Prior knowledge:
The chain is mainly alpha-helical. Helix content is 67%, strand content 0%.
Amino acid sequence: xxxxxxxxxxxxxxxxxxxxxxxxxxxxxxxxxxxxxxxxxxxxxxxxxxxxxxxxxxxxxxxxxxxxxxxxxxxxxxxxxxxxxxxxxxxxxxxxxxxxxxxxxxxxxxxxxxxxxxxxxxxxxxxxxxxxxxxxxxxxxxxxxxxxxxxxxxxxxxxxxxxxxxxxxxxxxxxxxx
Length: 178
């Protein structure tokens, strides 16, 4: 099997295995159409311009490429073009802001709070909590040390907790345990 054939086979395998995760990650940074475009462009760029061998391409590498494609598109679009919020984050569980009757409204509310996080915090949280990557793999995907991912994730959780508490207090609900 030639090197080009091996790369094509590996990309097909990676697409099959990780397209859903890449889309979920991309949707934390842009709308659904932009996320779909970014994932497609990621695989196209890896295929056309990839400097890694087929064995070296893995999920963290693809996540970094998706992030870079979206960032590049944002820079091209110019200021103000990305002021809209991403539609949401596909979370595995349904942790709740106290008594949300409508699960979809609840997920949208959580997504708004996640979207409000600074990008480094949001990326660390999404990679570890939503995508299920270990701290080491997330660090590799983001190009930062493992302790930075762990610190960012803790800060993201703390920020979300404070945001949820402020949200509850603004509705006259008691905050705290018990």
